[in-house]
Amino acid sequence: MPTASLPVTSDPSPGPAHVAIIMDGNGRWAKARGLPRAAGHRRGADAVRRVVRGAGELGIPMLTLFAFSTENWARPADEVADLMGLLRHYLRSELDELLRNGARLRVIGNREGLPEDIVRGISDAERQTQSNTRIDVNICVNYGARHEILQATRNLARRVAAGELSPERIDEQHFERELLTAGLPDPDLVIRTSGEQRISNFLLWQCAYAELVFVDTLWPDFGKDHLQQAIAEFRRRERRYGGIGR
Ligand code: IPE
Ligand code: IPE
Ligand code: MG
């Protein structure tokens, strides 16, 4: 007697609502080809375009990309200038692509440390994409989680000192409202490329229960297929949040 076969795509576990990526390996990609590091960063920017488009096609509601950390200022001045130049270029050249993809852009990080024209470019791009609803794209620039947590602590301490808030009332919700990610859902899945297995000061509070997937692929080679594989890995995980699971 013939038995009904399961559809090949049947998958009961939900996909991640928020995927965050630590985009790493541009320098090694360039070095392996005898090219300057800047060439790796340029190809890294191409990968951003591909992955934003791919994430939209895969129906991922929110994508957060770590582009430049507070610690990356320690790199040689010409490399920092190359990275800022790419960001400046990206904000201009990718605006149409973001609009076409229905993407709402947010830049997360400390704007005070960034060149003025870049800050203006960020505000422009955020404003022009603010009513898009297909995918939220957050790019972390001049972002460091410890700095963010300290800033939140300072803000709460000021409110306590001003008599507006009692220390006992500070709970997770209060704290989250002071973070740069206020109002955004925590990442469900964090992917880091290039084989490194560390967090490097990325979304420390928000990633408390994220699933981590480390892949060997260098960021300039990363694309929609890799994203899809990481999501498949995520779906195989059992998230327990301290409980005892299934
Ligand atoms: C990621 O690639 C880009 C940034 C961190 C700005 P890297 O530049 O860190 O590349 P590797 O780690 O040196 O290969
Ligand atoms: C993490 O990559 C930061 C970004 C991807 C922007 P790094 O290359 O700066 O991290 P470490 O120094 O290897 O930890
Ligand atoms: Mg690196």
Structure commentary:
- By secondary structure, the chain is of the alpha/beta class.
- It is globular.
- Helix 5 (116-129) links the parallel strand 3 (103-108) and strand 4 (135-143).
- Strands 3-4-2-1-5-6 form a six-stranded parallel beta sheet, sandwiched between helices.
- Residues 1-6 have low confidence and may be disordered.
- The protein is built from eight helices and six strands, in the order E-H-H-E-H-H-E-H-E-H-H-E-E-H.
- It has one domain (19-236): Undecaprenyl pyrophosphate synthetase (3-Layer(aba) Sandwich), CATH 3.40.1180.10.
- Bound molecules: 3-methylbut-3-enyl trihydrogen diphosphate (2 copies) and magnesium ion.
- Residues 23-28, 68, 72, 83, 194, 219 line the site of one 3-methylbut-3-enyl trihydrogen diphosphate.
Helix content: 40-55%
CATH uppermost class: Alpha Beta
Distance between the termini: 33 Å
- Written as H for each helix and E for each strand, in order along the chain, the element string is EHHEHHEHEHHEEH
Q: What is the strand tally? A: 6
Radius of gyration (Å): 20 Å
CATH superfamily: Decaprenyl diphosphate synthase-like
Shape: globular
Number of helices: 8
Return the CATH architecture.
3-Layer(aba) Sandwich
Strand content of the residues, in percent? 5-15%
Low-confidence stretches: 1-6
Report the average pLDDT across residues: 95
Structural class designation: alpha/beta
The main pleated sheet reads as: 6 strands, parallel
Bound molecules: 3-methylbut-3-enyl trihydrogen diphosphate, magnesium ion
Query: What is the total domain count?
Result: 1
Widest β-sheet, arrangement of strands:
3-4-2-1-5-6
CATH topology: Undecaprenyl pyrophosphate synthetase
